[in-house]
Design a protein that fits this description.
- By secondary structure, the protein is mainly alpha-helical.
- It is built from 21 helices and eight strands.
- The longest helix is centred in the first third of the chain and has 25 residues.
Amino acid sequence: MKLYRIALALLVGIGTLTSCSDKLELTNPNSPTTGTFGNTADDLEEAVIACYHHCRMEGTYARVGYTIDVCRGDEVWNSSQVWYLPFDNLNEPTTDEIGQWPWRDWYYVINICNYVITKCGDDDTALSDRMKRIKGQALFIRGLAYYNLAVYFQNPALILSYDQYSSLDGLYASNVTEGDADGWAQFDRVMDQVEIDFSEAMTLLPSRDQGGEWAKGRATSGAAAGYYARALMQRHKYSEALTVLKAIIGGTYGTYKLMTNYGDNFREGSAYENNDESLFEVQFMDYGTQGSTDEWTPVNVSKDASQGHAVESNYGPGDYGGWADLSASPWLYQLFKAERTTDGSLDPRLYWTIGTYETEWEGFEYGNMCYGSPMTADNIVVTNTGNGGLPIAKWTNLRTGLYTSVVTGLKCGINLRMMRYSDVLLRAAECENEMNGPTQQAIDWINQVRTRAKLKDLQLSDFNTKDKLFEQIANVERPKEFGCEYGRGVDLLRWGFFYNSDRLQQLKEHGAYKLDKTTVKEPVTYPGTGVQSSYDTFQPGHEFFPIYQNTLNDNANLVGNSANKDKDNSGYFSQKGWTVHPVVK
């Protein structure tokens, strides 16, 4: 059930209505304040809906907040060579306001979550079941917000009380932890809180099975458990994460399973969204049921909001009305082409990831169609008419045949599945490999995902070292399962690929492309004539995005991060005792 109803966008009322003692005191029900609103469970339900609503703004998941991590990954490059280019090249300047949008919008989310959590109080045992669900959702969404801020900006300010908040244009809490010379102590402090929020939410929320219809479109204990495992893995707490992931697989937090059809994870409509594979997804209204107003910023909240996302606009080919900004890397395409299914066909995930013409697609799903128009071998569809690029099919209607062109703006109604059960399986395999690998258990979890794609099973005998199995997970299984989705950039951070010269060279090879629309399906050799890579301009510290300079200027409590200071972060990795897996060809 989608959360159609937009409640209060921001709970910013400060004063209460007062009058002289000899006059009738009235409270305007249409102008609630923090003094009159939030004292009942009904009020707080409204506020929780506002928390969800702000997760689908420009800077959260409706466009920029989703796609800048996609840009950071090695399976996507910038075909427009304009919009998103600094994010793709990992050299965003501190004066680029676009980079501030996720910071701004996630703090709007945090503000509302803090309001709900503050109203619920500290004693969970005193809460009714309904209030536990309310608080659990707010904790999950706050944990989600800080998780995004930490993996984007390294040292965000930590604000845990609504009373602590003044204004986005005013002072933030300090983002400096005592004795912190490089921003990593603050990163750890924020991630500590992320783990606390997710783990507490796990105890307060029902499973998807227990929640029934209520759970569709909402955070559940399974969603909290999945993100708790993600947070643990980000700091290499593999043993703890494996325990949580095993519990998810065992059904402790609800029943999850892989959809038989991979494509069902990328279509809109109640028949596909909030399905058995989805642990958490961001809800967008189906096209045709939306309002007319695009809510690009948190301040232009409209009662007639479109309530869709613009990821399709960024991915969509220019010839079909898209903004033609982002394309799948040639490396990802060749990775799909390198391995056939057990019946000799192409991996079906290629169909739903990259919008290319293939003879094998005749008669498969919707066939060789692009927005309702037939593709041919001689009529190659490129993302950008000038620079080429392989069109990304995920989170678009390129394959579905529902529409004849990209409906640009915040109009796409496909829910963004932020965590799927396949991620649980592959993460469990990774953790198992880190702790004990290589093992048959890790192979078995990987093979569950491969079986859905009709690929032959991996054999433990082919992986004689932990490093070799890690390479298979990191650079074969994960990119083919999650290519062009949010999360690859975060993976590169925790794997330390930016801190090892061989891994950085590998990223350059993966991110290589030609600005030549006639050779988009050919392999690209890096370095080579006319070849460039998204990572050519990478400078140490810029694996994170800088904190906007005007935000620093306006808030004396804030200091810049490694990207602001061009500071190498490899020391943090080594000081933790973590190692970067060597490249295995």
